[in-house]
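Fig. S4 source data, part A: sequence.
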Amino acid sequence: MGNFIACTSFFLFRINFDFHQVLITNKWSGDEQLFWLRCINWIVRVFVVLIPVFIIWFIKDRGNQPFYGTKALDSIKPYLIMLLIMLPLLAWASTQPDFLAMYPKAKF
């Protein structure tokens, strides 16, 4: 239950974290403001989640395992096979109107 509350709290904090937007709106205006808001927003939100997760790993799991999801690869072959399977599907999807309407998310 404690992990659930911690995870929920981190993601709620991430969703509502917008302190950097005040700095951007004070410094830039117009198209520059929109550009910097979109660029910096993605970076800031990654670190807002990554830093607390790193702190939890450092305190709780540092001696038991490497940082979550960072185990050294035994073999790269399965990843190359998955990539080869996905490339034709992605190439096909990228030509579809509904896909093009949705992606990329950072449109300017």
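Fig. S4 source data, part B ends here. The chain has a mean pLDDT of 84.
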